[in-house]
Design goal:
This protein is an alpha+beta fold. It contains two helices and five strands. It has one domain. It is 31% helix and 22% strand. It starts with a helix and ends with a strand.
Length: 81
């Protein structure tokens, strides 16, 4: 399991790459818990929650869930044909 500091560093790295890619230059980025960051852009404060999506290719059997799956189990399974 990733430490909180490492997780926050990774989230900041991903956020910085997103801003770089979009050509956005925020005047302030403050880390938090919920949301992950408070960012000042064009005179407005925006809350940003960083979410990573992992996509894997799998066969149809891997898509099968238990009869009553937990929400976490549903969210963790993303397959492309």
């Amino acid at each position: 399991m990733e430490s909180d500091d490492k997780k926050k560093q990774r989230e900041k790295f991903l956020l910085d790459r997103f801003f770089e890619h979009q050509g956005i230059t925020p005047t302030r980025i403050d880390p938090g818990e919920s949301p992950d960051f408070l960012v000042d852009i064009d005179g407005r404060t925006v809350g940003i929650e960083v979410t990573e999506l992992f996509i894997q290719r799998c066969n149809s059997e891997a898509r099968l869930l238990p009869e009553e799956p937990t929400l976490q189990a549903i969210e963790s399974i993303t397959c492309l044909p």
